[in-house]
Amino acid sequence: MDNIEEYLKSGKMFYHPFCNAEEIERIYNVQDTEDYLLKIRADEIVNHVRLYRVMRRWIQKNSSSWNFTRHFSTKEFKNYLRDVPIDLRKKLKRITKGFVFSNEPNGNIIQTDFGKIIIISESLQYFLYYMNLFFLECFHQEVPDWVRIAALRIAIRIMLKKEAMDFELDPRGIIPKEIDKQLKMYTRGEIEFIIGHEYAHYYLKHLDDNNIIEKSLFLT
What we know:
Largest sheet: 3 strands, mixed
Shape: globular
Strand order of the largest sheet: 1-3-2
Helix content: 40-55%
Distance between the termini: 42 Å
Number of strands: 3
Structural class: mainly alpha
Radius of gyration: 19 Å
């Protein structure tokens, strides 16, 4: 009983629905940049009810194989590093990197007490996806103008931080599979370009005191 009361008082119960016991202990005892990234991701869910609901949807869809850490895609980072010269690749692979929940559609490299971390906002992927749906000429004859205008509105709202980050709960409409496949292909390429931009900040040593600012992942 004492252990249960201590568990409740510690706040660990808030992470329990989507993190396993090992991940929760890492959140409460950060040792390195991987733990720090895990804590960033988990804290945003705990602090935002809508994200919590989105995560519940993911868990329901993947109940038998759910793992919070593995939920976040790594292929975009791997694809970028695959095309980098091998000597540079070895240096860049040492940096912790990953996607995070944030309503700021951007990429960042952050300085922590444990080292540097590259983060890419999940909202950036949605912004690029809908902007591509609006702008790419290859879709103009297949996608009605009213759909393209609606996509532009969604993209603008994401950039203005006025769009709820709940696309898993409300996809805003169903895109035909072939068009969706092409959109995701273009979006991945753009994300990889942004990843390269953040790696360049690290490689060119831009993280001095004059270039570092503090800001929240969720801005209003």
